[in-house]
């Protein structure tokens, strides 16, 4: 594993305190990514793929003329080519993560169906990310999937909707959340962060709750990378912090409430989330 003494030592101070970062995700891509080994770049790209996922969904929903909103690993032209390759069944690039093609294959096979395409893409993405060769990064994505599953399941319970249809993954934790009727999903002795997630989910102030959840996520990153001083893990943590800080700089209370309403409507809509996708 490579050591990045100069890169880490030169990272600016960025805190999640409501102020602007003074450094950007775009600068990270321009200044830091070229200095990484090929192996480490593939690890860090797992964070950028989240941004590509959003752009793929925009292109599928609105067409090639849509303005993309985020900076991922692929340009608009490259994403259009990836989508076209999947649609036409052409030869596939090894530089594109396999989950993108897998999702697009499924999309074009079921394009006429009313489905939760965002959730389905998330399923493919998380299955790919939790298999990362870097243990810390794989655990980070597993942690995020667990937290998201708990939050959505609690929301579904609150509105007396189907829990099983909105849980991603097929590991023991996902299966417990999907099937258990217990308040703690039977996971009290398994997830040391379960109580905190449940407690934060009960906060009716949406913006405050989301900030607290992001703070919890960032604390997990720091706590679990404490002994990674000059490695790719430290750069990965810094990038995740930048993504969170930039996202909050663009959000407001109205945006948070709108997203909350969208989630409820999606759960109520009856869109299909088939069992064969819950991997």
Describe the structure.
The chain is mainly alpha-helical and 279 residues long. It has one domain (5-277). 61% of the residues lie in helices and 0% in strands. It is built from twelve helices and no strands. It has helices spanning 5-9, 25-32, 38-62, 76-88, 98-109, 117-129, 135-158, 172-179, 194-201, 206-224, 232-250, 253-268. Helix 10 runs antiparallel to helix 11. The mean pLDDT is 89.
Give a short synopsis of this structure:
The protein contains 12 helices and no strands. It has one domain (5-277). Helix content is 61%, strand content 0%.
Give the secondary structure arrangement, pairings included.
Blueprint: H1 5-9, H2 25-32, H3 38-62, H4 76-88, H5 98-109, H6 117-129, H7 135-158, H8 172-179, H9 194-201, H10 206-224, H11 232-250, H12 253-268
């Amino acid at each position: 594993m490579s050591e990045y003494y100069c890169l880490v030592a030169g990272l600016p101070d960025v805190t999640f305190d409501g102020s602007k970062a003074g450094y950007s995700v775009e600068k990270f891509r321009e200044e830091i990514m070229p200095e990484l080994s090929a192996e480490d770049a593939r690890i860090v790209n797992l964070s950028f793929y989240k941004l590509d996922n959003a752009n793929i969904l925009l292109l599928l929903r609105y067409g090639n003329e849509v303005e993309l909103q985020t900076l991922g690993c692929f340009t608009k032209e490259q994403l259009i080519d990836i989508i076209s390759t999947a649609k036409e069944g052409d030869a596939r690039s090894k530089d594109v993560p396999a989950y993108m093609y897998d999702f697009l294959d499924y999309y074009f096979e079921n394009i006429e169906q009313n489905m939760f395409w965002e959730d389905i893409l998330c399923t493919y993405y998380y299955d790919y990310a939790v298999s990362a060769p870097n243990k810390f990064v794989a655990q980070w994505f597993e942690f995020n999937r667990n937290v998201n599953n708990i939050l959505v399941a609690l929301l579904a319970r609150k509105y007396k909707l189907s829990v099983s249809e909105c849980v991603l993954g097929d590991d023991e934790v996902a299966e417990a959340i999907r099937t258990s009727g217990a308040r703690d999903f039977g996971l009290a002795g398994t997830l040391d962060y379960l109580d905190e997630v449940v407690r934060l989910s009960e906060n009716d102030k949406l913006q405050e709750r989301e900030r607290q959840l992001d703070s919890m996520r960032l604390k997990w990153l720091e706590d679990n990378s404490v002994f990674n001083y000059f490695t790719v893990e430290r750069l990965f943590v810094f990038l995740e912090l930048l993504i969170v800080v930039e996202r909050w700089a663009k959000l407001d209370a109205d945006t948070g409430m709108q997203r909350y309403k969208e989630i409820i409507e999606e759960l109520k809509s009856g869109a299909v989330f088939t069992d064969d996708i819950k991997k």
